[in-house]
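Notebook entry, structure prediction.
Reason for the run: the old model in the group folder had no record of what sequence produced it. Starting over properly, with the input documented here first.
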Amino acid sequence: MERWQISWKRNYRIFGWIKYAGKWQDGLPNGQGTLTDSSGNKYVGEFKDGKRHGQGTYTISDGSIYIGRWEDSLPNGEGTYTFADGKIDKGIWKKGELIKRKK
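New structure, fully documented this time:
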């Protein structure tokens, strides 16, 4: 799973273009929103202080999808990652790493 943090500055991040549509507070995404980057990756879900936080779905341009809980822009809590080839990792995530698999 890709690990990355977003630097918010006028809807651009350091390594490419991003588009955000949703709620803002104090100049940062807060609440429900949609983030799409120049590679075609898309996150739809909750934000807190400019980071993915709460429930959300992250769809990667290769067809992989993570659906679950987020904290500090990383999968954290219960979630399911479906790889482009159909393989599924379901369980508990901590700071972007799967720590406990569920069947």
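Summary: The longest strand covers residues 16-25.
The old model has been moved to the deprecated folder.
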